[in-house]
Every structure is written in structure tokens, then in C-alpha cells.
Amino acid sequence: MEGLATSRIISIQASRRQHYSAFLPTFSLKLQKISNGGQVWMMKRPKSFKSIAASVQPLEASTTGHFDNKQPSKVVLELWRSADAVCFDVDSTVCTDEGIDELAEFCGAGKAVAEWTARAMGGSVPFEEALAARLSLFKPSLAQVQDFLEKRPPRISPGMEELVKKLKATNTNVYLISGGFHQMINPVASILGIPQENIFANNLLFGSSGEFLGFDANEPTSRSGGKAAAVQQIRKAQGYKVLVMIGDGATDLEARKPGGADLFICYAGVQLREAVAVKANWLIFNFRDLINALE
């Protein structure tokens, strides 16, 4: 998911094809207390999910401009192969779309949210402010979110499932770090076999009648610099020697810092953000490049 920073963006359109039955089990609910003493209903993860496979047409080399980092250096390859943890952004990386924009469109506010996002992209806006502003435009109810999840299964980027299996086979731990919401990311994790404790994301909050209340501001990814903080937290807690961050946006690039990610790989198979891509250690358009590098 892209941070709110000005840059040239090239979108790569994805087509949909149903992979198998799109039926998704309904979420159950749990009552959870929040810091102000109130109570909210939060959605619990169902036992299983099914996905829609997405076919992405990568950009032609002639349209992507000149980048010196499309071929990894020897040092970058060594770091990738020796990583004991890999953290993935979700929107426009693991999945082929932006979750909040998809939910807004489903709720009838896609244009309004997209217009606000376009305005925000023109300047520096704190992430938490941008998140609150977008949600305030359509205030999704619990029923709407459940309906969305049942009718719009996750669209996983081509090669992602194979890459995660490959990483697991080499005993590399996989994490999902997102400014999106658990309600939409938990199904993705279920498909990929990533444990709940390896997800760092936000939570939508609902009242006792299922009405929208807001989002949990206690989550690190709910504010600016949150992804970098989450990566640092993971590394400190687990003591990983080599940690890699993979994503498409400025907030993913920020995770490459002392005590955080050693390597930032920019995935531009959905969105090419040139200001981010040029600063990456390795720019890829297909997850097959990463899979091949592990063989």
C-alpha cells in the first residue's frame, strides 16, 4: 500500500477469473473492550477461505523507464537467500488491489474515496489522518463488511502462493504488514497459511448494533511510520539476523532502516511508483524472479 507521497504512478491492470468456489464462511463476532472503557464488536477469523486468482499483465520494458536495480547485485542476492524473515505489504503487493478502495466502491463511495486519495497524494498527509478521512466518507457497517467479504474474495497476486510455500520450505518466517484491516487481511493470511500472530494490521471497530465506530488507533500500522515500527518490533522480539521487506509504496520503503529491514524489494507488478522503485535494492515485476533466486 502506498504512502501519501507525490510520485509518478503507473497502474498495471488486473483481470479476474474465478479460481474455484467463491463461497466464504460468515464471520463470527467477539466483544472486546477498548481503552476508553467502552465495548465494540470485532470480527473473528473464519476457519477457511477461498480466493480468486488474478492474472496481471506486467508492463513492457519500454514503458517502465530506466532503472538500474532490475537486476540484483551479488550482495542483494546473498541477503535474499539468507533471510530468516520476509515481511510483505498486502495491498497492491500480496493482493492486486487496494482493500479500502475496493470496500468503498462496494459501499457506493468509490469515487469519493478515490478523489480524496488523489488530493492527498499531492502533499504530505499523516497516515492516520488519511485513513480516518477515507473511512468517514462511507462509514462501513459490520453487515456491509461481511457482505463484501462473501462477495469479493481476495485476489492474490500471481506467484504469491508459490513464493510463500518456497519461503516456508527454507524455514523463512513470513509476515503480513499492512495499513489495511484485519477483517480483509485475515482471509488472505488463511489462504497463504500465514499464522494470525504474524499479521500486523488495523482493525475496524463496530458498535453493538453493527454500526461503524472507527478504527483501533492502538495498532502501530494505524499511524505514520507504523510499518517501520512494526518491522523493528518483529526483529527485536525474534532476533532475526536478516529481514527483508517487500512492497510497492513509500511506507514499505521506510521499513529499511537500522534495526528494521536489511533489504527493500519493490514489487511493481500492480503499481509502479517511480519515486519508490528507484530507491529499492531490487525492483521486480514478477514474483517468479524471487522464486527463481531461491532455487
Description:
This protein has 295 residues and is α/β, with parallel strands linked by helices. 35% of the residues lie in helices and 22% in strands. It has helices at 74-82, 90-94, 99-106, 110-120, 127-136, 142-151, 160-169, 182-192, 226-238, 250-253, 274-277, 288-294; strands spanning 9-11, 14-17, 28-33, 39-44, 52-56, 85-88, 155-156, 173-181, 199-202, 204-206, 212-215, 243-247, 263-267, 271-273, 282-284. The strands form five sheets. Strands 9-8-6-12-13-15 form a six-stranded parallel sheet, with helices on both faces. The chain has a three-stranded mixed sheet with strand order 2-5-7, with no helix packed on it. A two-stranded antiparallel ribbon has the order 1-14. Helix 4 packs antiparallel against helix 5 (127-136) and helix 7 packs parallel to helix 12 (288-294). The radius of gyration is 18 Å and the shape is globular. One of its GO terms (biological process) is L-serine biosynthetic process. Keywords: Amino-acid biosynthesis, Hydrolase, Magnesium, Metal-binding, Serine biosynthesis. The active site is at 89 (nucleophile), 91 (proton donor). It catalyses: O-phospho-L-serine + H2O = L-serine + phosphate.
